[in-house]
Amino acid sequence: MFKAFDISASALTMQKLRMDVIAQNIANAQTTRTDTDQPYRRKIVVVEENRFNKSFSQYLAESGVEFSGSGVKASRIAEDPSPFKMVYDPGHPDANEEGYVLMPNVDTVREMVDMISATRSYEANVTAFNASKNMAMKALEIGR
């Protein structure tokens, strides 16, 4: 039963990070120059299975209760290798001799779709967490 809490909590943490990275991408959609003198490069959260470390599940294992469960974790934040966009804007300070500006590889529409997806996933995990909590509460009421 407690495995559900750990799985939902790990998913909530990962989806929050995903929303933060998407917000950073949207905020930098017009950034033409970074520390490397290149446009901002879109970031992506890479997700993998998480074998639980020290948490309530570890407490259960130390108590002799058998537990095997997994959730998710962000293994790293990678840069999207897709090419930058070339936009004609001769008045821009970063324009080349032909008047083209190298723009970030951030598509705002795609980022908004990803944000909606992350938000819905977050909401689904909150619902799953609350359902697990309600089941635990009902189980405790059985003994009354």
Describe the model.
The chain has 144 residues and is of the alpha+beta class. It has one domain (2-142). The protein has helices at residues 2-27, 56-62, 108-142; strands at 43-51, 70-79, 85-88, 100-103. The strands form 2 sheets. The protein has a two-stranded antiparallel ribbon. A two-stranded antiparallel sheet has the order 3-4. It starts with a helix and ends with a helix.
Number of domains: 1
Instruction: Report the biggest beta sheet as strand number plus sense, adding barrel if it closes.
Output: 2 strands, antiparallel
H/E element sequence: HEHEEEH
Write down the overall mean pLDDT: 87
Q: Strands of the largest sheet, in order across it?
A: 1-2
Structural class, judged by helices and strands? alpha+beta
N-end to C-end Cα span = 20 Å
In short:
With 144 residues, this protein is of the alpha+beta class.
